[in-house]
Amino acid sequence: MVAQDRYSSLRDRIGSALRESRPAIVIEMLVMLLILALRTFRLLPTATFPFLLLGWLSLWLRRSGWRRVGLSRPVSWPRTILVGTVVGTGYQLLDIHVIVPLLHRLTGEALDLSQFLPIRGNVAYLLIWLAISWTLAALGEEMAYRGYLLNRLTDLFGHNWIGWVVSSIVCATFFGLDHVYQGITGIAVAFLFGLLFTGLYLAGQRNLWLPIIAHGVIDTVGFVLIFLGLYP
Q1: Where do the H-state alpha helices sit in 21-143?
Q2: Is residue 136's pLDDT more than 60?
Q3: Percent of the chain topping pLDDT 90
Q4: CA–CA separation, 50 and 63 (whole Å)
Q5: The whole model's pTM is what?
Q6: Which residue from 211, 73, 69 is spatially nearest to 151, judged by alpha carbons?
Q7: 40 lies in a domain?
Q8: Using N-to-C axis directions, what is the helix angle for 48-61 and 22-40, rounded to 10°?
Q9: Alpha-carbon 69 to chain mean position
């Protein structure tokens, strides 16, 4: 019983530091930067899993949870699904026909989607990547970036409009760099996606399901077009 009390007390002390001490939050962010640096140099297959693990640990120590950062039931499921589907489909088509060609001209480098080309005409690969896109990408990345990272950044920069703007830009930059395998154009595309998902998160009163659905729809539209040979 004494050991359990000490364990609980230690957890509360660490959690209190993570909640109230800016240096502690900075250290937490530096750990995330290290993870992202390893990802940028392709020493990690993805930053999402380490971010999720760090996020879970940070929330647990602070006696919080994923529900507190947005993984809770939305006010209206039908409206959330409809808006997420419309925004996701519309933005993906805008991205393909306007944003990517513009970024291609600016950077001089095409979007590198070579990793996904085996999907073309292959139903099995399409189904595998759709499963990955709705779990690791849509759910996992939104929990890691919008649910965890964005909220920790606002703890650092402030819970006012300036803090949210700065945090949104930093979070989108992290998200973009996690897509380094798609080249400089892919990083820029993912950065803009990150800003979109943050906007949806805030518009939905910091509920994660709207950006999760939009994220999944964007990836689904992209994969289906690749499967049909219509993109890239």
Answers
A1: 22-40, 48-61, 77-94, 100-107, 123-132
A2: yes
A3: 85
A4: 20
A5: 0.94
A6: 69
A7: no
A8: 160
A9: 13
Q: What is the per-residue pLDDT across 150-191, written as a single tens digit (0 to 9) for each?
A: 999 999 999 999 999 999 999 999 999 999 999 999 999 999
Query: Could you tell me if residue 29 is inside a domain?
Result: no
HSE, side-chain direction, 13 A CA sphere, residue 150: 27
pLDDT bin (cut points 50, 70, 90) of residue 8 is confident
Residue 61 counted as domain residue: no
Distance CA 200, CA 188 (A): 19
Please count the residues of the chain: 232
Answer whether residue 2 shows pLDDT above 70: no
Q: What is the C-alpha to C-alpha distance for residues 141 and 65, in angstroms, rounded to an integer?
A: 16
Domain count, the chain: 1
Range of the domain at 215: 68-227
5, pLDDT greater than 80 = no
User: CA-CA distances (angstroms) from residue 55 to 61, 86, 148?
Assistant: 10, 30, 6
The token duo for 86 is 């419309």
Query: Are 54 and 31 in contact, with CB atoms under 8 Å apart?
Result: yes
* Residue 114, CA distances (Å) to 109, 111, 214, 226 in order: 13, 9, 23, 11
15 in any annotated domain: no
